[in-house]
UniProtKB/TrEMBL annotation:
Protein name as annotated: Dehydrogenase
Similarity comment text for this entry: Belongs to the Gfo/Idh/MocA family.
Residue intervals of the Gfo/Idh/MocA-like oxidoreductase N-terminal domain: 4-132
Residue ranges annotated for the Gfo/Idh/MocA-like oxidoreductase C-terminal domain, each copy included: 144-421
InterPro entries: Gfo/Idh/MocA-like_OxRdtase_C, Gfo/Idh/MocA-like_OxRdtase_N, Gfo/Idh/MocA_Oxidoreductases, NAD(P)-bd_dom_sf
Length: 427
């Protein structure tokens, strides 16, 4: 029997989920309704359903009618892809109305909201699943396999550098993410992927977190210090923006125009704000040190304005060392092919045994985003579950443990002190 799904939040990340249901999982899933603050955006999602996926249009409900939607449509599952700060609202309401939830990362943005979600799960007995697609990328799964198989012994320390380039990295500073209230900053919105990977790879959870960093490149003040004299608030209609390589021009991309520019009249949201404007409250340069419960330590850095996109991670263990270098295809959210998201352009996994010759580990990538990981995740969520020796399916506990590293990091940024993760929430 098919399970009914509704989706709340029809912005840039939504099509990844509703497109998959409409294209690949009609035998097991039935998509019955959209919910959003913006009717124009829902209408466009319905247009894509019909024209791109040959799927009938579905009912739409404004955000204020979320509970009415649940009562009317009677879904078994709710997919949450709204603005991060609203995740907890829809997750908790859905749980209390008898639904299970699939939520985009991050599960939420602060410790209080995280506790509210956990309490609702305990109270209702319903399930929350967090869509961590990076776990399913073949190279990341291979790292998990190598560590599980004791290839380099017990991992004692990890050095992890993540680079966001001037296309993808800059995009967080054009959108709603630039306001830390909405996203929790990059330590929560973006780094939740990376902290989850470390938890997943090492099979452990964070104990203490210390962070430092700030806004060092984007923002008006930084641009002024570099000698910039011409500024604009948003790219649309700006002469100055025409010569800015950091600007995004919504009117030149049919998809972005329909989803955002044409929808502005309803909620005033501007998708193309200047990355060198005022009002940016998130960091672009971050360093984090984490102590884990299995005694491993992590040195992590994130920079959002670099010439390349990807990551370098080194694992030091009691039997050797492993070095990983992954270069990804840069992209703008909803600005191009879905397969460009996390597409692997170069990869290398090198194992260096303590008393042996170094060797490179072969990884076979699949088709689709994140090296072929996205289709595997979608099959795991919407298809028939199969036994997975790597336990890639992420529960609410996994979701909590990943965001709590970033949440603790945000607290540390404010206080200058290390933060004990166990003191933030009660699981």
């Amino acid at each position: 029997m098919k399970k009914k799904y509704v989706l709340v939040g029809t912005g840039g990340r939504a099509e990844f989920f509703y497109g998959a249901i409409a294209r690949d999982f009609r035998d097991t899933c039935e998509l019955v309704a959209f919910c959003d603050v913006n009717q124009t955006r829902m209408n466009y999602a319905n247009q894509l359903l019909e024209e791109k996926y040959n799927h009938p249009q579905i009912n739409t409900y404004l955000a204020a009618d979320f509970e009415k939607m649940i009562e009317t449509e009677k879904p078994e599952k709710v997919v949450v892809t709204s603005v991060d700060r609203t995740h907890h609202t829809y997750i908790i309401k859905a749980l209390e109305l008898g639904c299970d939830v699939v939520t985009e990362k991050p599960m939420t943005v602060d410790a209080d909201k995280c506790q509210d979600i956990i309490d609702a799960i305990n109270r209702t007995g319903n399930e929350v699943r967090v869509a961590f697609n990076y776990r399913y990328a073949p190279h990341n799964t291979k790292i998990r396999e190598l560590i599980m198989n004791d290839t380099i012994g017990q991992v004692t320390s990890v050095n992890f550098e993540w680079a966001l380039d001037t296309q993808h990295g800059a995009d967080y500073f054009r959108r709603w993410h630039r306001d830390k209230r909405n996203s929790g900053g990059l330590l929560v919105h973006k780094s939740t992927h990376h902290f989850d990977l470390v938890n997943f790879w090492l099979g452990t959870t964070p104990e203490t977190v210390y962070a430092s960093g700030g806004l060092r490149f984007y923002g008006r003040e930084n641009a002024e210090e570099r000698g910039v004299t011409q500024f604009y608030q948003r790219a649309y209609g700006s002469e100055v923006a025409k010569d800015d390589p950091f600007a995004i021009h919504l009117e030149e991309n049919e998809h972005l125009k329909a989803m955002y520019l044409d929808a502005e009249k309803e909620d005033g949201y501007q998708r193309d704000q200047s990355v060198f404007g005022d009002g940016i409250s998130i960091e672009d340069t971050l360093g984090v040190m984490v102590n884990y419960k299995n005694k491993a330590i992590l040195n992590y850095s994130l920079n959002a304005y670099l010439p390349w996109e990807g990551y370098i991670v080194s694992f030091n263990g009691t039997k050797g060392r492993m070095e990983v270098r992954i270069r990804e295809q840069s992209y703008i959210n909803s600005g191009g092919s879905k397969d460009d998201e996390g597409k692997v352009k170069e990869k290398s996994i090198m194992v260096m045994p303590m008393f042996g010759q170094p060797y490179e580990v072969e990884v076979i990538e699949g088709k689709g985003g994140h090296g072929g990981g996205d289709p595997v995740l979608l099959q795991d969520i919407f298809g028939t579950p199969v036994e997975d020796e790597f336990n890639r399916a992420a529960s609410h506990v996994d979701g909590a443990m990943s965001i709590l590293t970033g949440i603790a990091g945000n607290i540390s940024l404010k206080t200058g002190q290390a933060v004990k993760v166990d003191e933030l929430i009660n699981l």
